[in-house]
């Protein structure tokens, strides 16, 4: 079963002031019945298990059926819970399922993002062919594949299959036609693994931090599964 994050950005104008949620117009207001408020604190961060592991020790390199997908990340936090002083708007964003936590902007900026981690993923022939040339992070991979017609082979067997049938270099997608998959490993920096945070949250948090201080801006979140 998949896991998603439910995050919101909060700030306070002083160390003793109340926390406020950063609000934005809800693009689904009036289009879906449960989106009944024009503004929301919900922050759009997609399903990214590497980032979930870094932020809150969630799905920390465990994929399909608990399959190991690499080294464990050093998490920034670990189930700190819902803050007692959370704002009502941020509270509404949470799923109330599991692993509630929070991290301040100061913690995010102090974190060692230059560390590297080894990853492991199951890929189709098309992704394997690209990885075999560069050993770089693949564009897509899975934490495990199972089902009728699926065959997990070694790297050498995948190379031989592609050599025998070069058309396999175009055999991609989660459910590739050949049914062939293999496990690969690659190195990546924490900053690359958590890049959604840089694009979707950090610019907004930095704008607030410059006004109110890095300790007075935080990301609150929980997860569903």
Description of the structure:
- It is a single chain.
- By secondary structure, the chain is α+β, with helices and mostly antiparallel strands.
- The protein has two domains: 4-114 and 189-224, no CATH class; 118-187, no CATH class.
- Helix content is 27%, strand content 22%.
- The strands form three sheets. The protein has a four-stranded antiparallel beta sheet. Strands 6-8-7 form a three-stranded mixed beta sheet. A two-stranded antiparallel sheet has the order 3-4.
- 34% of the residues are buried.
Q: What features would you highlight for this structure?
A:
4-stranded antiparallel beta sheet, single chain, alpha+beta, 8 helices, 225 residues, 2 domains
What's the helix and strand layout?
Layout: E1 4-11, E2 20-21, E3 24-25, E4 39-40, H1 49-56, H2 88-93, E5 98-104, H3 105-110, E6 116-123, H4 125-134, E7 151-152, H5 155-164, E8 180-189, H6 190-193, H7 195-200, H8 202-212, E9 217-224
Short description:
The chain has helices at 49-56, 88-93, 105-110, 125-134, 155-164, 190-193, 195-200, 202-212; strands at residues 4-11, 20-21, 24-25, 39-40, 98-104, 116-123, 151-152, 180-189, 217-224. It is an alpha+beta fold and 225 residues long.
Radius of gyration: 20 Å
Low-confidence stretches: none
Determine the strand fraction and express it as a percent band: 15-25%
Order of helices and strands: EEEEHHEHEHEHEHHHE
Number of strands: 9
The proportion of residues forming helix, as a percent range, comes to 25-40%
By secondary-structure content and strand pairing, the structural class works out as alpha+beta
Widest sheet: strand order? 2-1-9-5
Q: Count every helix, treating DSSP H or I runs of 4 or more residues as helices.
A: 8
**Multimerization status:** single chain
Number of domains: 2
């Amino acid at each position: 079963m998949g896991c998603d994050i439910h995050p919101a950005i909060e700030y306070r104008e002083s160390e003793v002031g109340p926390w406020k949620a950063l609000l934005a117009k809800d693009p689904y207001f009036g289009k879906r019945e449960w989106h009944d408020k024009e503004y929301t604190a919900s922050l759009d961060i997609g399903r990214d298990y590497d980032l979930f592991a870094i932020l809150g020790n969630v799905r920390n390199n465990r994929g399909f059926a608990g399959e190991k997908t690499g080294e464990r990340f050093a998490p920034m936090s670990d189930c700190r819970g819902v803050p007692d002083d959370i704002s009502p708007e941020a509270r509404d964003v949470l799923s109330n399922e599991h692993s509630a936590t929070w991290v301040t902007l100061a913690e995010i900026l102090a974190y060692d993002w230059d560390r590297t981690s080894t990853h492991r993923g199951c890929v189709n022939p098309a992704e394997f062919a690209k990885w075999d040339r560069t050993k770089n992070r693949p564009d897509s991979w899975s934490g495990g594949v199972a089902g009728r017609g699926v065959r997990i082979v070694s790297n050498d067997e995948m190379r031989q299959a592609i050599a025998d049938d070069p058309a396999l270099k175009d055999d991609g997608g989660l459910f590739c036609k050949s049914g062939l998959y293999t496990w690969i490993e690659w190195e990546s920096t924490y900053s690359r693994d958590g890049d959604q945070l840089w694009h979707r949250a950090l610019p907004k948090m930095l704008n607030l931090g410059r006004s109110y201080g890095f300790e007075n801006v935080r990301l609150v979140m929980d997860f569903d599964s």
